[in-house]
Amino acid sequence: QSGEVAANPEQYDESYLCPVQVGQTTLNLDFDTGSADLWVFSTLTPKSESTGHSLYNPSTGTKKSGYTWDISYGDGSGASGTVYADKVVVGGVTATSQAVEAATSVSSQFEQDTDNDGLLGLAFSSINTVEPQAQKTFFDSVKGSLAKPLFTADLKKGAAGTYDFGYIDSSKYTGSISYVNVNTANGFWEFTASGYAVGSGSVSGSVGDAIADTGTTLMYLPTTVVQAYYNKVDSADYDSNQGGYTYDCSENLPNFLISLGGKTFTVSGTDINFAPVDSSGETCFGGIQENTGIGMSILGDIFLKSVFVVFDQTQSTPRLGFAAQ
Ligand SMILES: CN(C)c1ccc(C(=O)NN)cc1
User: Fold this and answer.
1) Helices (DSSP H) in 54-194: which residue ranges?
2) What average pLDDT does this structure show over 119-148?
3) Number of helices and strands in the chain (H, E)
4) Which of 11, 44, 228, 284 has its CA at a distance of 20 to 30 angstroms from the CA of residue 133?
5) Which atom of ligand 1 approaches the CA of 35 most closely?
């Protein structure tokens, strides 16, 4: 089988939500290559936390008795609950008995994001949080039945993009795809990024260890790289109250270039201009921020909306393919 599903941006492209049939209900889920749990708001979630969300009703599934899950994300958000087996359909691709993690508790960030009905993890199943036995991601459940064991991400700035499962649509990118091998030891789509440049500068240095994470909004890079970037933005400075680099919204940001698999990709300055910090619209928060305390760089949606990405398990070593859009 193979299929395609729309990836619809929230305001400021904070995250991208995709319609997924879970049991007999269609939910809008955040496809997340940085985690490996498929969890959903459900009729088991307290009403005080689930108002405004579409809900999975576990009555259509088979309860996995004694199984629980509890996940925490890098931004401090999280959720927990119980586990069911049920049918999940993404763009016509069907997992007949997918582990569906029904939330019995969610953190405030999820409670408040009423467009988001849960997450569909697309990292490696080794980091699934279900106890006493880790469960397969949707991709792992269907991988063997796909025309090719791969999926692609084509996210866009302020417009609907797509995730494709089982095939590469050559109309979605230009030029050739350049591949890098993935290190799965931490359960992420983790690889080594090469040199970088700011604006019209020449590519040099090294970004280093990084993950491709559709579930993270911004780009988190080494301090040296981030300082080099904002040194080219006159009004920029690090604002500890905002928790990152801010600048005058009127200022044009430079492009950021990064070399992956021998090819250089450009993230336009306009894509790096993330959002105003308040309703006055005077000060803006940058889409490139420091990776301090994370332990690796994260190429999140700010980067991913500039490229076409292949998450490829056609070979014994998984790999990532990047092409210009
Ligand atoms: C609060 N929400 C919607 C989140 C969604 C995804 C993540 C994340 O770190 N994914 N890799 C964090 C938070």
Assistant:
1) 108-112, 138-142
2) 99
3) 6, 25
4) 44
5) 11
Specify the pTM: 0.98
Q: Position 273: which residue type?
A: N
- CA distances 33 to 163, 187, 235, Å, are 11, 10, 34
C-alpha dist (Å) from residue 185 to 123, 192, 211, 317:
11, 13, 12, 12
239 included as an active-site residue:
no
Question: Residue type at 310?
Answer: V
Cα 302 to its chain centre, rounded Å, is 10
Smallest CA separation from ligand 1 atom 3, residue: 110
Ligand 1 site residues (CB inside 6 A) read 15, 30, 32, 34-35, 73-75, 77, 109-110, 113, 116, 213, 215-216
Contact 94, 21 (CB under 8 A): no
Tell me which of 30, 32, 37, 154 is the catalytic residue: 32
Which residue's CA is minimally distant from atom 8 of ligand 1? Answer: 215
Pocket test for ligand 1, best of 75, 214, 301 (most atoms within 8 A of CB): 75
For residue 306, name the pLDDT band (cuts at 50, 70, 90). Answer: very high
Q: Catalytic pick from 13, 30, 140, 213?
A: 213
